[in-house]
Give the backbone structure.
Amino acid sequence: MILFFSGTGNSKFAAEFLADHLKDKCVSLNEILKHKKEPAFRSEKPFVVCAPIYAGRFPNIIMKLLRAAQFAGSKRIYYVATLASKSCSCEQSLRKMTSDKRMEMGGLFFLTMPNNYVLGGNIPSKDDAEYQIKYVAVPELYRIAETIEMNDVLPEGENHAVTTALSSSVNTLYSKFMVSSDNFVVNEDCVVCRKCERHCPVNNIIIINGDPVFRKRCIGCYGCINICPKKAINIGKKTEDTNRYFCPDYSDWKAKGLT
């Protein structure tokens, strides 16, 4: 079973690719969060969790969901972390959580995908993103699929104490000071298509009197900013001139013969 959480489509693409090539089922953790479903999963094949890296680790809300989840059937679980470039290691925290659940960690894969962190800039054009997926991500996904299909266990990576401590501190600071929609603004280009409201995995956005209103539940996925067709949502003035990127659906990609 392939489980995924995705703010801007990268991890969803990876999960659907793996589900297709492993002939397995794909389950959205976004939907479980959004509709407050019970996180109970059963699979005879190994579990695979695809999620993005936020400040060195999987999002806190996903770690919390996985800790509370019930896994039945297979005792092996793999993790696929999508990110724009290699960052601090999250392997130690995943191994501990997996061990606490009396499961075996098959391995952690890092998958480089197009950057979509709007506060970090350098968001690729559509053509550049497509090139990166085709020539960087897809070949790596084939390798990941083969490893999981063979049920191989990857050796534990290098988790030096300094790296792990840095990852923890960066993640703590990010969660405390960066995860907020208090500075989000919506300009006059908004057409109230409600895509932001429907897409938000934690129901942080509601439409009131024809305008998107942000509550206090933001997890910093920036899905609403990247999915807006009019670039109407911004973080103050910081992102007004920043490109947007939302990963295409794997089904569309496959239909074009790009895999």
In short: The chain is about 35% helix and 20% strand. The CA atoms of residues 204 and 217 lie 5 Å apart.
